[in-house]
Write a structure and sequence with these properties.
Helix content is about 35%, strand content about 15%. With about 400 residues, it is of the alpha/beta class. The protein folds into 2 domains: about 10-35 and about 295-410, Aspartate Aminotransferase, domain 1; about 40-275, Type I PLP-dependent aspartate aminotransferase-like (Major domain) (Aspartate Aminotransferase, domain 2). Strand 6, helix 8 (about 210) and strand 7 form a beta-alpha-beta unit. Bound molecules: pyridoxal-5'-phosphate (PLP). Pyridoxal-5'-phosphate binds next to helix 4.
Length: about 400
Amino acid sequence: MTDASEFDVDFVRGLFPQPCWEWSFFENAGGSYVPQSVIDRLTAYMSETQVQPGGNYPLAAKAQARMDEGHDLMAAIIGADPDEVSVSPSTSFNVYVLAHALRPLWADGDEIIVADQNHEANAGPWHRLAGTGISVIEWKVDPVTGSLDPADLDRLLTDKTRLVAFPHVSNLVGEINDVAAITQKVHEADARVCVDGVAYAPHRAIDVKAWDVDFYLFSFYKIFGPHMGCLYGKRELLLEAHNQYHFFHGEDALPHKMNPAGPQHEMFAALVGIADYFDAVYSRHHDAPANSLHERVKAVFELAARHEEILSTRLLDFLSSKPHVRLIGTSSPDRNARAPTFAFTVKDRPSADIPPLTLDDKVAVSSGNFYAYRLTQALGLDPADGVVRASMLQYTSLDDVDRLVGSLDRIL
Ligand SMILES: Cc1ncc(COP(=O)(O)O)c(C=O)c1O
């Protein structure tokens, strides 16, 4: 067996089209690169089976089978059953739909708690319910660190609370919120959780059953896939939520009732390529077969997390050495504490000034509020300028980080 402490980044990079590596790419929290396996699945669907899927004739049956395989594998990746998973164009879309599906279950004056650490995707649709008689209460971050304190929920939760919406990881703060503990606390108050896992999913394995979450969302285009979003919901909760698709699909049509966009055929088929990717990385590092795709994905993320911790240490050491840099979130690289998404500001310098200066070094970073608009406000920042953000993924190399550090050192 290969030494399990080594994550073979060169092998991993070889699974992606080579032009990806011409730049040191740090906009991964915006969207990941896509491995060849996903491109191949997409191409195969569009070149061989681009017909209305269904069982009427062999080609249509094959198209349906390819789509179903993509859907079922993605449910398996997070430890869910296929009917508990709705795949649609994006997470923003899924939360919007979910808010509409749940609102009829609640009475005027019921309360929902929304963390201001959220990306707007898991904030706006809930805040809008204030206009329909729901009382929306903010769970506020620490204005200096950007951290969320679960103890705050002890005074925010009431017997009217129906839902708590918060991120697993903020796309700016990078800290890992303890989803299982928060969920347990919310359940003790007889309320439900809606967790935005978009910034967590690229870095650690998702285990919806182990965490006992009610609703959990993430986006495939951040974890090596096409531009689609995934909504997991507990079966009984999806059944009681109101149908958002054509009326004739009915209330029992899981998961279709939660996707008024209808399926994007070729993209469903392309999802199989994500499983291909994890299988390839797993096989590179382990001789022994794992029982399930979920186990293989967990094993890959376990190795990748160690690799990410090494990368994080390098960048955090650099950022911490600059007194005029304000890092958002913990400066600990501990893989249990944070994901490798780093946002910072530089004293007396607009964030927007920094990214153009890294271009000469072929380093791609970005600046802005990244739709965590309310969070930048809570941190006392100008949302129009926001932060500089550098984010890594398992294919990021130590050379990339060195190039980033060198570039920032020259600029700062
Ligand atoms: C933490 C987080 N949540 C939600 C979203 C929205 O995801 P989508 O683009 O799939 O709507 C993003 C997108 O950047 C994000 O970073």
